């Protein structure tokens, strides 16, 4: 790295911010769950890492990058990350493989800049994590929920919203809950909405209350793009309700899927705003939460049907499990619970609620059983683990972040048993994980077609077909298929990527289109000559004429 460039960068940084090109420091940011280097046979690299502590430094660095762009010796590009925990989609690695990429670490921008307890509006910087916001709300006794995800407490809230992520709390669509954005386009021009520009008051609060602003809606250009950097975001938080219960509807017969789908749709339509999003998980996916891999964690092979049947019987895991939540007053929750019972009585199924007497009693009894006894009695140990996962799943529905969902990434990790379940970090721990996340029309026939497609395709590549459907609305579901593999096994890495590619390419022919792509897919799947991406590139040329920001991110070249 030229000394002149080092000096130029250091001159625009404040005292607490830093520039590092130490190889050991850089390597930490190149750890991912995707195995991209092995599969692509090309090395991604970064020139340096800049860690910011003040948001105004973003503009100074963008201005510098644009100024240096025409100088061959000094030219560099910036690749911003928040917390860098985008597991399975790239983690903290840059999308491009160009030279002179400087990673811009915004993880230290952790200011909660504004909170309106009356309206439930919070303004946060990129580095604010699920856990930090949770701690803030608890400390100040604010009765609101964190928009949590299964990615874990240490993940950025702002970044998940910009990636158009979702969760299972009442405000399922996280970008839909974003009311306002401030930041900078790649050319260094500051961005704020027209409403904020016109507002001559001291508090400028009205912009934080209205998503769509005035004039063309530009804030969507910051999502899944490489057009600008968001320095702060105001999101609307869901208020905690007086009462809550989660429900688990278990179906023993795989063939009941077609009958269950219209009933789930009915619940979502009839009780919108009361029932949150609903998850539908198959048996193998459920077993990945509670069972040990019967093949051993180092085996690159799927479970045999007899193994699945044996584990399912032992753990009482049904073929399909419907998971949802009810939020409201005591009377509303009681009434909707009664209605859900009525609706699903049409099916041979078992219905369990988190406020059921058996669950309440079980939680009280477990507290008095010595841990030594639990560890010595395998059936008891399994029951306790299932109850713990059940309770942690309930916490997520209540907006309390935890790491229960991260266990999935360790299904084929050779050293799974050695990790503390409270300290899981898939990238740092060397887990192998990719995601296939297509949209599926919520019709029973189409969902069955998807299930058969995944179950037929994944085993061809020795990948376990774990299936989850999440209802984004009554008419559309997203299916998150985790491709879990041994990152230390080169053949497993190749098979995992080939499996993903087969799922995507063949799935498109069936109408299963991903809503989110990893940094490798963004290049080989998207057509730079299509009308859509030609339009994106015209916008890119206007807002980033020197192509200095996030080269290749959601922008095929």
Automatic annotation (TrEMBL):
GO terms, biological process: lactate catabolic process
InterPro entries found in the cross-reference section: Cytok_DH_C_sf, FAD-bd_PCMH, FAD-bd_PCMH-like_sf, FAD-bd_PCMH_sub1, FAD-bd_PCMH_sub2, FAD-linked_Oxase-like_C, Oxid_FAD_bind_N
UniProt-recorded name of the protein: FAD-dependent oxidoreductase
Family assignment from sequence similarity: Belongs to the FAD-binding oxidoreductase/transferase type 4 family.
Source species of the chain: Colwellia demingiae
PANTHER family: D-LACTATE DEHYDROGENASE, D-LACTATE DEHYDROGENASE, MITOCHONDRIAL-RELATED
GO molecular function: D-lactate dehydrogenase (cytochrome) activity; D-lactate dehydrogenase (NAD+) activity; FAD binding
UniProtKB keywords: FAD, Flavoprotein
Superkingdom to which the source organism belongs: Bacteria
Stretches assigned to the FAD-binding PCMH-type domain: 42-240
